[in-house]
Specification:
Structural class: mainly alpha
Strand content: under 5%
Order of helices and strands: HHHHHHHHHHHHH
Transmembrane segments: 62-94, 115-140, 160-182, 194-213, 233-259, 271-292
Number of strands: 0
Distance between the termini: 64 Å
Number of helices: 13
Radius of gyration: 21 Å
Largest sheet: none
Mean pLDDT: 81
Helix content: over 70%
Keywords: Membrane, Transmembrane, Transmembrane helix
């Protein structure tokens, strides 16, 4: 007599204890992060100052005179925007990169390989979007400054939709990592082992579609007004590349600096990596949804939301 096959959602490795406890703790962490996060500090104190230091002038006032100037501006402002939500999201890719090998060279290779596939997804999506911006031009919603009765401009609505969807994807991936829901990438990953990293890269690249970062808006308007799809694609790809340079270096440093004892601890029980990954994904996903949707409405005085800093 054939036993019925169980259809209950299970992670790749069995997780001990109650995964819902991790879910709630991670969700609360995401909520608290959305309360204390200061866009003004990240965008102005860090982003604008870093870009201004590299460019040698105020980045907001620096002219973009031609394609060469545009690509330099794109990479520089991408680098300046390192400490944004997309890079917090990239932390979810850290845990799977922590290998067991003791050789420093082997650990670096194990880190660079998934980073390469992450860049494939990221550059593909940001390049396509940049080409669309260059082709469609000033008709893009992100270009518009028209406002509604609520004070929301089209780019605000686009940001809310894009970041809301990306946040939901992160939450679902976190739940799948913890075994709470079925893993939609399980069968694909068996055939294409790097599919998860490509998806992660696409999610990071997707932040350009909704990003309201002031310096990026200047680059966006320049690409739209150029009506040059190739320039738009190149500029947006460099913006994304600059955005993860520091994070990539941190991954390599972490791979080299992680002690043998810690790596053995992670390797002893694979569920520990799944637990860390799931917790980070859920935290980032909840933060992304609450910050870009609810806090956006609160910023326009549509609803109330607890905010520690602007």
């Amino acid at each position: 007599m054939t036993r019925p096959v169980s259809r209950s959602p299970t992670p790749a490795v069995a997780l001990p204890g109650r995964p819902w406890r991790v879910v709630w703790i991670s969700a609360v962490a995401g909520f608290l992060l959305s309360v204390v996060w200061s866009a003004q500090f990240v965008d102005q104190t860090i982003g604008a100052n870093v870009a201004g230091t590299i460019l040698g002038r105020d980045a907001a006032e620096a002219p973009i005179a031609g394609i060469l100037s545009g690509v330099v501006y794109a990479f520089t402002t991408g680098l300046a925007g390192t400490f944004t939500a997309c890079n917090i999201a990239a932390l979810g890719a850290v845990a799977p990169m922590l290998g067991e090998r003791s050789s420093a060279l082997a650990r670096v290779r194990e880190t660079l390989r998934p980073l390469g596939w992450l860049c494939v997804g990221m550059l593909a999506l940001s390049g396509v979007y940049g080409a669309v911006v260059g082709f469609v031009g000033t008709a893009m919603p992100q270009f518009s400054t028209a406002s509604s009765a609520s004070g929301l401009v089209p780019r605000n609505v686009q940001s809310m939709v894009v970041f809301g969807l990306i946040g939901l994807v992160f939450v679902y991936l976190g739940l799948a990592s913890l075994g709470v829901v079925l893993d939609p990438l399980a069968s694909v990953s068996r055939r294409l082992p790097n599919a998860r990293m490509v998806l992660m890269g696409a999610l990071i690249g997707g932040f350009l579609i909704g990003r309201p970062f002031g310096l990026f808006r200047k680059l966006f308007r320049d690409a739209a007004e150029s009506h040059n799809p190739l320039y738009g694609a190149l500029a947006f790809m460099l913006q994304s590349a600059g955005n993860i340079v520091i994070m990539a270096l941190l991954f390599v440093v972490l791979a080299l600096g992680l002690g043998d004892r810690t790596r053995r601890w992670l390797a002893a029980r694979p569920q520990r990596v799944a637990l860390i990954t799931g917790a980070i994904f859920i935290t980032v996903g909840v933060f992304t949804i609450l910050y870009w949707d609810l806090r956006m409405l609160a910023f326009r005085d549509v609803i109330w939301y607890p905010v520690l800093w602007r």
